[in-house]
């Protein structure tokens, strides 16, 4: 009984971290469902199911990224979601209201450009750990910001209908074999599309491992080992299934010619044959990419080892220089210490008294290692977030102080105070314009409510500012934003700002 209990505890502890990492990809979905649309515009759109919208948007990105092999810009997403809202929820708001709602949903899906953080306890190291995941990723290409679904997003979407007992490609291959045997060629094309989605997810995952290797070689090697165990161990089996299904398609083509199938069925078989060959080519390309990834990882690990240790003397380099200059005297630096060794040792009698009176300690004390010497890694987006939070906190403090002094304030006046405080360099600071965009997401702010229940990234900064104020003068501050689109604030060559009136409520 004691042995069984030991095995039970061992399994719980050893498997916990792997289970938590596997659950990581489900975390954004339930977080989005919990933070539903009843917090936006006083709950006017709470009838819209955020879970359904999330799954629909992920399916849209899989279709565009994996099947159509193209990036998605914001306008494509906006058109898709507007049609969905009208079709499935009888959405009848005007264009400005729908644009604001679509932008709000997009900010939630992307978590305002930040990863979703997932915290869990590691029983081995007895500490809390933090996982990171994204549903959507962005990149700048040809003058436009393009969006694509992440590998975690694809894996989450696929696992809502499938279990991960073995290779997902192998499962789809078995299903494809059944469809070919039952002459369901059109359904076979859909299965091949799912196979291509899985191959695309693995390609994205290996690309993310390359990025992680360049930032943190040790975490990258752990991710590569996990990827090799879970994603690459079925390559031989998958290749055999590909060959089997290709042979079945060839037999189906031969039978179709002999039995004179209908033209539509013949066309479906030809199309299935072409798509299967494309899938095999992509699968083979994935194998080559993963092989190169292993070679590249080994080179990066070797380079990291060399840079981690301080090189005191390179004998091969010294010999090479001596041979190049044809001067053996360069080896003197290596050989001279060997000829000056003092072999004979002496002992002073005066040290005997010290030796007799010396008391040895009962036990040796270990070397104290100060806290904070552990190697840590800070991601670039975390550094950016710290800077943005700091700048937004400075801008908010000036706004709050002015609203405490005045009943009403316009953005043109506030802009003048900012320029006076930070000089005209603020006009070249992107955080300033990002602050105004975040601030304009809502038309009413109640700091007493925000202090305990912040909704957006800017409200989190507001809550930190309110909690950190010793005089507690910001806690009861409430103000509304009245937008004045007919009034403009000229910024010269940088364009213009639309004026806003900030009006304090109560107090």
Task: Summarize, please.
The chain is α+β, with helices and mostly antiparallel strands. It has three domains: 2-156, no CATH class; 165-307, no CATH class; 382-505. Helix content is 61%, strand content 11%.
Write a concise keyword list for the protein shown above.
single chain, 507 residues, alpha+beta, 3 domains, 4-stranded antiparallel β-sheet, 3-stranded antiparallel β-sheet, 19 helices, 9 strands
Helix content: 55-70%
Structural class: alpha+beta
| Total of DSSP H or I helical runs spanning 4+ residues | 19
Q: Unreliable stretches, pLDDT < 50, 5 or more residues?
A: none
How many E-type strands? 9
User: What's the rounded overall pLDDT mean?
Assistant: 78
Rg, rounded, reads 32 Å
Question: Widest sheet: strand order?
Answer: 6-9-8-7
Total domain units = 3
Oligomeric status of the shown chains?
single chain
- Shape by Cα distribution: flat
Your description of this structure?
- The protein has 507 residues and is an alpha+beta fold.
- The chain has three domains: 2-156, no CATH class; 165-307, no CATH class; 382-505.
- The protein contains 19 helices and nine strands.
- The chain has helices spanning 2-23, 27-34, 50-67, 74-89, 95-109, 151-159, 168-181, 185-215, 217-231, 235-259, 263-308, 315-325, 332-339, 351-357, 380-405, 411-422, 430-439, 447-452, 457-467, and strands spanning 72-73, 116-122, 127-133, 136-141, 144-149, 408-410, 444-446, 478-490, 496-505.
- It has a four-stranded antiparallel sheet. A three-stranded antiparallel sheet has the order 1-5-4. A two-stranded antiparallel ribbon has the order 2-3.
- A hairpin with a 4-residue loop joins strand 2 and strand 3 (127-133).
- Helix 8 runs antiparallel to helix 9.
- The longest helix is centred in the middle third of the chain and has 46 residues, at 263-308.
- The protein is flat.
- The termini are far apart.
- The mean pLDDT is 78.
């Amino acid at each position: 009984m004691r042995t069984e209990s030991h095995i039970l505890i061992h399994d719980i502890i050893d498997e916990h971290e792997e289970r938590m990492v596997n659950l990581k990809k489900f975390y954004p979905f339930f977080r989005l469902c919990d933070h539903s649309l009843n917090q936006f515009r006083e709950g006017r759109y709470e009838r819209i199911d955020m879970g359904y919208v999330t799954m629909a948007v992920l399916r849209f990105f899989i279709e565009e990224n994996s099947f159509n092999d193209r990036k998605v810009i914001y306008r494509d997403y906006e058109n898709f979601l507007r049609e969905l809202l009208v079709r499935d929820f009888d959405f009848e708001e005007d264009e400005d209201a729908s644009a604001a709602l679509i932008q709000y949903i997009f900010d939630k899906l992307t978590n305002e450009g930040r990863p979703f953080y997932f915290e869990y306890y590691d029983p081995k190291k007895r500490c809390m750990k933090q996982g990171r995941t994204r549903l959507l990723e962005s990149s700048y290409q040809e003058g436009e910001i393009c969006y694509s679904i992440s590998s975690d997003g694809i894996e989450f979407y696929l696992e809502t209908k499938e279990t991960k007992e073995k290779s997902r490609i192998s499962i789809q291959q078995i299903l494809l074999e059944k469809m070919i045997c039952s002459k369901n060629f059109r359904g076979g094309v859909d299965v091949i599309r799912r196979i291509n989605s899985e191959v695309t997810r693995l390609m994205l995952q290996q690309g993310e491992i390359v990025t992680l290797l360049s930032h943190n070689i040790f975490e990258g090697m752990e991710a590569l080992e996990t990827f090799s165990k879970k994603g690459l161990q079925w390559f031989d089996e998958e290749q055999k299934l590909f060959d089997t299904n290709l042979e079945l398609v060839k037999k189906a083509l031969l039978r179709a010619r002999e039995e004179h199938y209908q033209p539509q069925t013949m066309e479906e078989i030809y199309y299935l044959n072409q798509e299967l060959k494309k899938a095999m080519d992509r699968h083979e390309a994935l194998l080559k990419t993963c092989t190169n990834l292993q070679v590249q990882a080994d080179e990066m690990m070797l380079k990291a080892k060399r840079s981690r240790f301080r090189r005191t003397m390179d004998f091969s380099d010294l010999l090479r220089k001596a041979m190049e200059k044809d001067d053996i005297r360069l080896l003197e630096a290596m050989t001279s210490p060997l000829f000056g060794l003092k072999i004979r040792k002496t002992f002073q009698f005066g040290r005997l008294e010290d030796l007799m009176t010396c008391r040895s300690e009962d036990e040796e004390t270990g070397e104290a290692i100060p806290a904070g010497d552990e190697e840590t890694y800070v991601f670039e987006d975390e550094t950016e977030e710290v800077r943005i939070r700091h700048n937004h906190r400075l801008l908010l403090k000036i706004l709050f102080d002015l609203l405490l002094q005045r009943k009403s304030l316009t953005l043109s006046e506030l802009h003048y105070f900012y320029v006076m405080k930070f000089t005209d360099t603020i006009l070249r600071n992107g955080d300033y314009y990002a602050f105004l965009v975040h601030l304009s997401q809502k038309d009413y702010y109640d700091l007493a409510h925000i202090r305990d229940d912040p909704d957006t990234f800017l409200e989190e900064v507001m809550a930190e500012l309110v909690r950190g104020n010793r005089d507690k003068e910001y806690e009861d501050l409430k103000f509304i934003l009245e937008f004045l689109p007919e009034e403009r604030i000229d910024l010269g060559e940088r364009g213009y700002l639309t004026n806003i009136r900030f009006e304090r409520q109560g107090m």
